[in-house]
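Researcher: Next entry in the queue.
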Amino acid sequence: MYKPITIGPIKISAISKAEFLAEVKRRVSSDEQTFVTTPYSEFLYAALRSGEVRDLLAKADIAIADGIGIFWAERFLSKPLAAKSHYGKIVEAWFGAIITGARILLTPSYLYQNIPEKIVGAEVFFDLCALAEKENFSVFLLNDWSDSAQKTAELLKIKYPKLKIAGVSNKKIDDQSVKVDIAEVSPDMLFVGYGNIKQERWIAEHLKDLPVKMAMGVGGTFDYAAGNKLRPPKFVRRIGLEWLFRLFTQPRRVPRIYRATIGLIVSLIRYKVFKSYPFRSNAVAVVVNEDNKILLFKRIVAPPKNGQSRVFLDNYWQFPQGGIDEGEELLSAAARELEEETGITSVKPLLTSNFLNSYEWLHGNRPVVFNQRPYNGQTQQTVLFRFFGDNSEIVVDGREFEEYEWLSVKDVLQRIAPERKHHAENVLKELSEYLKKSA
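Model: Structure for this entry, 439 residues:
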């Protein structure tokens, strides 16, 4: 059985190609719906900088390592920093990045200590089609505008004459009829070529509603198979320099290549430095009124700050919260933050939640040289308060929040920001049980 390997904010399945194909065969044969991702450098870069991408990739059932950058990152992050000072950590991390890169060039076997082999998505696609032909599985090819999927289907008919191609579509990603097309033929395997992240987002959103047993994003595989794009030669792929080949053959990809190389290195150095720090203690205040409605606040619209995982967007709702000062008690900190952010003082504590919510900040965005917040993330403790004042006491002056509403538990869970929902579910479950007992 393969095991997951944690590489920064994502997990990779430590699995060989043979094991992967056998696992897909088992899952499809047993009607076990499976979401496969093929993370490479750009995926990791995006996950370091976006909580949405991190959470999206976490939904995969199998994540195969597609790209030398994933292997470099695993080796680079495997050794913790020993330096004590902040700038010492930065220097050590940079030195470690260089040494890891050199070791990969000098001793390639160094890469494969924890992950058996690189499984290139553009290659394993054909292995999966060969498996489908052998096992009588049907396939569906989906991309969004070009004729690449159709040309790929024609190639597959020649390469695998007995392969059952249930359907081919080049409808736009937001065309709802795509799901109808797929449902009509119920393919065993669905290959989606909407481009990285977009295709994984589409699969994660729709797979549960589709009669499909396995779905995998294939990026530009259809373009390469159809001959619309030139694939790097085998020896270039073998030594992990696909990015250099694409730099010369597809100059418009320069921003993507930068993100997958220099951008990834810098982001991982930031991640490694901040990962070595402890979590900050944080107090959350949940307020319930005499009608048992919960107070929820809408954040001001602001850009990310210091790489924190909370990114303030339009319609971003949350509970008041803030750091616990050294020597400060949880109850005092929660009451202080509540007053500072909302003006509310007419409250009495009902209970302290038993649920601890720990999360990392998005280190890929954080300034590492002049950062004033030496923390890996936050561990949140929650105090639930009963409000006995009136609404005139509540202040939303634009410094923290711009709007508030009293909502039912159900409405809170629908309104609160997605990354805060898990915390809210656990805390409000405790509150509901408390209110039921005290009724």
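Model: The longest strand covers residues 377-387.
Researcher: Noted, moving on.
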